[in-house]
Write a structure and sequence with these properties.
single chain, mainly alpha, 2 domains, two-stranded antiparallel ribbon, 5 helices
């Protein structure tokens, strides 16, 4: 189990409520590490997530890219079966409220 208090102390995080919240979830999930991040970590975190396949680049329009998170396998099964397309088309055809 990771030492939550030591990680939060190193980051200088003193808010009692945040410390309790992080401690609760670290224990519940069995976290292997705690990392306090800021906006300056965005590029590194995006690079890591892309490398791990946790997010994908999606082509929106020619020359434009955006990030798309990966889905749970059941979402992918639904997409293959056309359920999402059926839902989208039924909403388009629905009368306006």
């Amino acid at each position: 189990m990771v030492d939550v208090h030591a990680a939060l102390d190193r980051a200088g995080l003193k808010n009692v409520h945040v410390r309790e919240y992080v401690g609760y979830w670290a224990e519940l999930t069995g976290a292997g590490r705690i990392e306090v991040i800021s906006a300056s970590d965005d590029a590194r975190l995006i690079s890591e997530a892309l490398a791990e396949g946790e997010i994908l680049l999606a082509q929106l329009r020619q020359g434009h890219r955006a990030l798309r998170r990966t889905h749970h396998r059941r979402d992918e099964q639904s997409r293959r079966q056309g359920r999402i397309r059926q839902l989208a088309s039924s909403r388009r055809d629905a009368p306006a409220a």
